[in-house]
Amino acid sequence: MKITPIKTRKVFAHDSLQEILQEALPPLQERSVVVVSSKIVSLCEGAVADARMCKAELIKKEADAYLFCEKSGIYLTKKEGILIPSAGIDESNTDQPFVLYPKDILGSCNRIGEWLRNYFRVKELGVIITDSHTTPMRRGVLGIGLCWYGFSPLHNYIGSLDCFGRPLQMTQSNLVDALAVAAVVCMGEGNEQTPLAVIEQAPNMVYHSYPTSREEYCSLRIDETEDLYGPFLQAVTWSQEKK
């Protein structure tokens, strides 16, 4: 598998994402995956808030549910089916006080994918919108896929045999997050100014030419009642703002 980080100009609120992609991306080959930082999607869509907003109130408004951690002073939140600090609200690598998640991240990802397929005239192409998140019991951040386009998100090993001939009963490979982690390592977390990456020769990919449906988007999530970590998630009281 080959990952190429793509440098761009600095991105400001209400810039044209299509122009940035046109300027920065090389000619795309069939079966490539274009990885896009959620930051530049949000900026180009104007998903920002000004300095008059209270960050704590903004987090509560943006989060699906939130839990305030008194020791760290940070809000742990549920947003778009993942656990993420501060509802994904960020203040780095932008001239804006606060950058939010795109309002319709599924729609954003599908629009990017459809435009790239048409512009580069390729039939099989994937897109992943990424962010960075933390992992319990580990220091540091790593990438996560917020949404995807153009391929099946899971590779199913259930029923296949392991190295000793025993059938696998539960294993599914999460391609979206695995590719996001690898790409974000190359894209960086600081001032690299590489909010794009192109992945080639990714294994176990099944491409399709239709937009990701809401049903497929939600299929990657697991209900807390079935989640291995469900007892921890349900052992605390999460707060919610009225929408």
From TrEMBL:
Protein name, as recorded: Coenzyme F420:L-glutamate ligase-like domain-containing protein
InterPro entries according to UniProt: F420-0_gamma-glut_ligase-dom, Fol_metab_g-glu_lig
Pfam families: F420_ligase
Domain Coenzyme F420:L-glutamate ligase-like, chain residue ranges per copy: 6-200
Gene3D superfamilies according to UniProt: CofE-like
Domain of life (superkingdom): Bacteria
